[in-house]
Amino acid sequence: MAKQNVAEQFVDILVRAGVRRLYGVVGDSLNPVVDAVRRNAAIDWVHVRHEETAAFAAGAEAQITGKLTACAGSCGPGNLHLINGLYDAHRSMAPVLALASHIPSSEIGLGYFQETHPDQLFRECSHYSELISHPKQMPRLLQTAIQHAVGRSGVSVVSLPGDIADDPAPDKSLETALVTSRPTVRPGDTEIDRLVEMIDAADKVTLFCGSGTAGAHAEVMEFAEKIKSPVGHALRGKEHIQYDNPYDVGMSGLLGYGAAYEATHECDLLILLGTDFPYNAFLPDDVKIVQVDVRPEHLGRRSKLDLAVWGDVKETLRCLTPRVRAKQNRKFLDKMLKKHADALEGVVKAYTRKVDKHVPIHPEYVASVLDELADDDAVFTVDTGMCNVWAARYISPNGRRRVIGSFSHGSMANALPMAIGAQFVDRRRQVVSMSGDGGFTMLMGDFLTLVQYDLPVKVVLFNNSSLSMVELEMLVAGLPSYGTTNKNPDFAAVARACGAHGVRVEKPKQLAGALKDAFRHKGPALVDVVTDPNALSIPPRISTEMVTGFALSASKIVLDGGVGRMLQMARSNLRNMPRP
Q: Residue 450 and residue 498: Cα distance in Å, rounded?
């Protein structure tokens, strides 16, 4: 039996860790690894057109599965292209192992062709970034990288010179058992005791939930019922907490709607559950605040805390709910539920009049129709910019759908690459890329990846021929818009030229039929929807501090504030209130 080289050992360990795909672009320094993948039936090489796509795709797959994924880039420019997608994966707490192949080891530090120092470059967007400079570092260094990515939920980077990848692996190398899943974290008794005291002493408690509530929906609902608490959420918490939620008061933040802002400011005690919500201008500074988070470094970095609780949300609530005293007074909860329903009712009129005749098409209408027609277990990947607004306000979660975007890093061009990673997980599951024309064209080359692998991703392109979020930011600053106009082709024709299904929609009456045809199509499809560039968005509460860096229109045009099926749910919650 032939002796393994380092590349073969590297690939074998990835397979042992559960990695099934390695996203990347081939290159000479990567050749030993790519060839090792070719000869290993348990893992596939996914050839994308840009390494940034590889990192975004790996990050999306990790968010869908919760398991380790991997991407790779060749030396110098090749692995540098990974960096933006890796930043996003790291900030999204997605476990990703990135292979940054390197120049020949004997040339490092001598200004060689394509020389960079990837072990240094990737340190800011990873928990672990190290160089393999000798075969005997394997397999321990790779195993350590995997433990960091999985154990700390983020990115690890291994830099590997091509010549070392081709060297024989060390004899009798030590391979230890790999950690491939994370444990639960229970808070200490002291913190639980103190939190019970604070909840029992408070008359009005509000829960504000983030992505850390994933898998804890039932526990949050049981807790909210016992303490009669309204439940708001951040954008990344929406998919996990909004559905089947009789205590829902909407979302706070720059894309917010409903009464979440009031609920967080009018309570006696605000409990932040699994959220690293970054906009402290939307958080109160005159109520008691408790934060529960599995990442201790998140505790207290957004607001002053009266109690910091280190633990995951599900385990914390399992400890907490049996011990708190049940509250009988629903006055605060019912008041917030009514404010929430009124807030949604109050803004519904702005874009509900003759929307089926308005040309260019209202993007809100597109998102609303998409929400109605998409599958109940669809995965939506969302471009940064105005598509974030439409997804946040119109895509209805139900416990089975997923909504993934660059919600922490805020990168353009993420939706299409993320859709690639999400679709590879399950070709039978509907994956919809909600793309803006600016983001789509930035990495448009990877539409060809859909065609090459016959991935049935449906790209719904919100085409307003502009960088509209940036235009609005310019408006806020009192500047004329400049450099924000896109001269676009007929994207449907481009899609057809690539070998995919493509249709252009310019009138509202064409929309539903075009989406249904795309969803029925067995392969990749693109629906190019010409939308109104003047559709604007404002948050439910505005202060001078909130304006900076966000698109607020001077004209104060109010859009249909996230109504979709949310208004129906809010009305239902009011009808279901217990009557005295």
A: 10
- Which amino acid, 336? M
pLDDT tens digits, 362-376: 898 899 999 999 999
Alpha carbon distances (Å) from 159 to 8, 76, 120, 146, 183 = 16, 11, 10, 13, 28
> 59: which residues sit within 8 A by CB, 6+ positions away?
69, 85, 86, 88, 89, 92, 94, 96, 418, 421
Q: Where are the beta strands (DSSP E) in 191-235?
A: 205-209, 231-233
Where b means 16+ CB within 10 Å and e means fewer, 519-551 reads: beeeebbbbbbbbbbebbbbbbeeeeebbeebb
Residue 326, number of CB atoms within 10 A of its CB: 9
CA angle, corner 217, sides to 215 and 218, nearest 5? 110
What is the pTM (predicted TM-score) of this model? 0.91
Closest CA to 359 of 529, 548, 198, 556: 529
Averaged over 68-91, what is the pLDDT?
A: 98
Q: What is the C-alpha separation between 103 and 508, in angstroms, rounded? A: 54
Q: How far apart are CA 391 and CA 395, in angstroms?
A: 5
Closest CA to 182 of 219, 146, 209: 146
On whether the CB atoms of residues 292 and 319 are closer than 8 A, the answer is: no
Residues in the chain: 580
| Torsion on CA atoms 264, 269, 272, 277, rounded to nearest 10 | 40
- The Cα–Cα gap between 120 and 124 comes to 8
Radius of gyration of the chain (CA): 25
* CA distance to 116, 191, 236, 319, per residue, from 223 (Å): 52, 17, 20, 11
- Tell me which of 573 and 89 has the higher pLDDT: 89
Nearest to 351 by CA among 560, 538, 564: 560
Q: Average pLDDT of 403-408?
A: 96
Mean pLDDT of the chain: 90
